[in-house]
Design a protein that fits this description.
Layout lengths: L4 H11 L21 E9 L14 E5 L2 E2 L4 E4 L4 E8 L8 H13 L6 E7 L3 E3 L3 E2 L4 H10 L9 H13 L5 E8 L10 H10 L3 E6 L10 H11 L3 E2 L7 H13 L2 E6 L9 E10 L3 E2 L1 E3 L3 E3 L9
Parallel strand pairs: 5-6, 5-9, 9-10, 10-11
Antiparallel strand pairs: 1-12, 1-15, 2-3, 2-13, 4-12, 6-7, 6-8, 13-14, 13-16
Helix pairs in contact: 2-3, 2-7, 4-5, 5-6
């Protein structure tokens, strides 16, 4: 059983309603179904980098380990998400936190009002906030939570990401996202990179990363942020100026709200601990082959709780 099948399994029932997958969306029934559902969130762009908003299920081809799969779920709607902001508060971040805090507020303001948001602040220690709604005073609460944590000490990046993945597991929405903002490599975690990467591969989370690096920083590790984003279907950003972070966060919020949700039932999902590669393609007669970004694969879980 793969780790993200619990809440999203009900989506299959909604998809199997009278109108089929390409009709208007119906409310999701509150029910649990034991299926080996693999859920993908995909961003699709044309050759000029523009969003492609009107694709149909028949425009996609989905492969697991090179074998064509039947798409069992297809949705393109502004679905609410559980979203965690992972914010570096190591000493080197002190002069940058004002811009980062404002960027986090912009992300919250640009999110679906039903989104569930939380913050994981970290230096050499990690502190997680309670989830808040993106609606109402949510943006102000997110901003205050980030601004209230001291910028000092070392960088426990992997511990913070692990904490964020734990928080996502407790979230109410099937769609999960982490946005990681850091200016350096890890130098204080008890978790290792391989462990965190494996956790991400077991999760349905899409991870976006923003690396705010100083040119001469010896701790900079852009390859780590690229790897986490690429493996999970997110995107890695490396702005030249901290002031660009706000625009990046707005871009991320818009992309989250326009992604395609695609699911299939895997015959391999009971192979606990085994990594399965995933490839999703899209093509239309008018536009030809499109650029699709989604997770590269997943690690199957043995049971409903997973083997972490």
């Amino acid at each position: 059983m793969i780790g993200w099948r619990s809440a999203v399994a009900a989506l299959i029932l909604a998809w199997q309603g009278p109108g089929g997958p390409d009709t208007a969306q119906q409310p999701e029934p509150v029910i649990s179904v034991d299926v080996n559902l693999v859920l993908l969130h995909a961003s699709v762009h044309d050759r000029k980098g523009r969003d492609v908003p009107d694709l149909k299920q028949s425009d996609f081809r989905l492969y697991e380990d090179g074998v064509l799969q039947d798409i069992r779920l297809f949705r393109h709607e502004d679905a609410p998400v559980t979203l965690g902001l992972i914010v570096d508060h190591s000493g080197s971040m002190a002069p940058k936190l004002g811009e980062v805090t404002g960027a986090a507020r912009m992300l919250a303001q640009s999110s679906n009002p039903e989104d569930e948001l939380f913050v994981v602040n970290f230096n050499e220690r990690v502190s997680s906030s309670l989830p808040v709604s993106a609606a109402g005073k949510g943006a102000a609460e997110i901003e205050a939570t980030i601004a209230g944590f001291p910028a000092e000490g070392a960088t426990a990046l992997y511990d913070a990401i692990a904490s964020g993945l734990d928080m996502l597991d407790k979230g109410r929405w099937a769609k999960k996202v982490l946005v990681v903002i850091s200016d350096g490599g890890d130098n204080a975690s008890s978790h290792k990179l391989a462990e965190v990467t494996r956790r991400a591969e077991k999760s349905s989370a899409v991870i976006y990363t923003i690396g705010i690096y100083d040119p001469e920083d010896p701790d900079a590790a852009p390859s780590v942020l690229r790897r986490l984003a690429n493996e999970t279907g997110g995107e890695a950003f490396f702005p030249k100026k901290t002031a660009e972070t706000g625009g990046i966060c707005e871009h991320i919020a818009r992309e989250i709200r326009t992604q395609y949700m695609i699911g299939y039932v895997s015959g391999n999902a009971k192979q606990a601990g085994v990594y399965h590669s995933v490839r999703l393609e899209a093509e239309t007669p008018g536009s030809g082959k499109l650029r699709v970004r989604t997770r590269k694969g997943y690690i199957a879980w043995a049971n409903a709780r997973g083997d972490r």
